[in-house]
Amino acid sequence: MATDSATASRGQWSTRGGFILAAAGSAVGLGNIWKFPYITGENGGGLFVLIYLVCIALIGLPIMIGELIIGRRAQRSPVGAFQKLRGEQTAWRIIGWMGVLAGFIILSYYSVVAGWTMNYVLMALTRFFSGKSPEEIGSAFGTLYTAWDINLFWHAAFMLTTIGIVLGGIKKGIEAWSRILMPALFLMMLVLLVDAVLQPGFGRAASFVFSPNADKLTPQGVLEALGHSFFTLSLGMGALLTYGSYLSKDRDLVGSSALISGLDTLVALAACLILFPIIFSQGMAAEAGPGLVFKSMPIAFSKMTGGVLLSILFFVLLFFAALSSAISLLEVVASSFIDQLDWTRRRAVLVTGSMIFLFGVPSALAGSGKLFPAWEKLVGKNFFDTFDYLASNWLLPLGGLAIAIFVGWVMPDDERREEFTRGSKLGALYPVWLVSVRFVAPIAITLLWLFSVEILPKHWLAPSGPGGH
Ligand code: TRP
C-alpha cells in the first residue's frame, strides 16, 4: 500500500495483531486489576458489575470506534487530527490539547501506584510475606504509602522504564514490548484463575460478582461505573485515537474495537474471580477499598500453600498491566509534541516524560503529608485524589462527549462511513453505531456527568436506593 512520506515517518503497526495487543495493553491496566475489584467490592458486587457492562457496551464501545475512526482518518495525534479534519484554526483542537493534558495528569499519579507494584514484585521475590502476621503486612503498606523517599524512588524507576520503551517508537518500542507483556499477562492470569477456581471461596465469589444485588449500590456507584468504563477502556483523551493513527487503511476497525473492549472486560471480570475467592477463602472482607490488592492479597498469600509463587505471579502481572497502559499515556503526550512542534521522538519523549515525572512528585508525596499539607485542608483531597477526580470526572467524560459529537455530527457522513465499513464484516451495524454516537452516548454522558458534579441531585438516580436520601 502506498503511504505518504509523513505517514511513513510517523511509524505504523506492523500487523493487526500487534495493534490489538498494544491497544489491549493500553486498556488493560491498574484500572482492571487494582481499581475494578475494589470498587466492585465497595459497591456490593453484581448490580454494579451489570451497570458497568451496560456502560461498556452502549457508551464505551461506540466511542472507542469513534476515536479509532478519527485517528485513522487523520493519521495524526489528537490535536493535529482535529486540525487536519477541520482546518488549522478549528476550535476542536482545544479538545485535542485537553486530551494531552489529561494524559499528562493521569500518568503523573498512575506512575505512583505503578511504582508500588514494582516494590511489591520485589517483596514477593524476596518472600517478604511468608510467615508475616496480617498486622505486619498491613503496616508494610502503610510504611510504603507514607515514605516520601521510597515513593519517589519507585515513581522515578517506573517513569524511566516507560520512557525507555516509548523511545523505541511504534514498532520497535510499543508494539515489540506489547508482544511480550500481553501474552505473559494472559498466561499468568490463566494460572491464577485456575488456582482461584480450586479455592473453597470460589462459589461465593462468583455469585458475589454475577448475581445482581442492589443492597450496597448507591447513586454514586452508578456514576463510578460510567467513569470507570471510560478509564478502563482508555477513552476520552485520544489515546486510542493516537493508536488508530498508526493503523493502516485496510484494517477492520469495528471488529478490532469489539475485540479490545471484550478483552478488557474479560480481564476485569477475571481479576474479580481471582481476588474474591482468595479473599473470601481467607475470611476477609470484599470492601477493603484501595488496600484490597496491596494489603488483603499479600495477607492471603502469606497463608496459602504455594503463596510465594502465586504472589510473584500476581504482582508481576499487575506491573506488566500498569506498564503497557503507561506507555500509551506517554505516547499521546509525546506524539502530540512530535506532530505539533516537529520535535524528534527522542526529544519529545525525554522532555515530556521528565515533565510528567516532576508533575507526579506531589502525588508521590501525598501519603507522607510532607508537601503542602494545607492543600488537603483546603480542597478536602490530597494531590493524588485531586488529580484522579479531575481526570476521571471532568476531563475524560467531557473528552468522550466531544469525541462522540465530533464523529456523530461534525464529520462528513461519507468519511466516517468509509472508515467504519472498510474491511469489516460488521459494516451493516453502521446505522446502529451512528444512533449511539449521535444520541445514546452524548445524552447518557451529559446526564451522568451532571449528576456526578451534583448539578442534578444524586437521589434522582436511585430514589429508593439506600444512599438515596
Ligand atoms: N486503561 C488503563 C487502565 O485501566 C489506564 C489508561 C491507559 C488510560 N491509557 C489511558 C485511562 C487513557 C484513560 C485514558 O488502567
Provide a short characterization of the protein structure:
Mean pLDDT is 89; it is low at 1-8 and 464-469. The chain has a single domain (13-358, 385-461), classed as Hydantoin permease. The protein is mostly helical.
Please give the CATH class: Mainly Alpha
The total of beta strands comes to 0
CATH architecture: Orthogonal Bundle
Strand content: under 5%
Radius of gyration: 21 Å
Name the quaternary structure.
single chain
Q: Helical content, roughly?
A: over 70%
Low-confidence stretches: 1-8, 464-469
Largest sheet: none
Small-molecule components bound: tryptophan
For this structure, the CATH topology is Hydantoin permease
Number of helices: 20
Structural class: mainly alpha
| Average of pLDDT | 89
Count of individual domains: 1
Distance between the termini: 61 Å
Shape: globular
Return the string of H and E elements.
HHHHHHHHHHHHHHHHHHHH
Look at the structure and name the CATH superfamily: Hydantoin permease
Structural summary, described in words:
The chain is mainly alpha-helical. It has a single domain, classed as Hydantoin permease (Orthogonal Bundle). Helices cover 76% and strands 0% of the residues. The protein has 20 helices and no strands. Helix 6 (93-125) packs antiparallel against helix 15 (307-341), helix 8 crosses helix 9 (169-197) and helix 14 (291-303) packs antiparallel against helix 15. Residues 1-8 and 464-469 have low confidence and may be disordered.
Notable characteristics:
469 residues, mainly alpha, Hydantoin permease, 20 helices, disordered N terminus, disordered C terminus, binds tryptophan
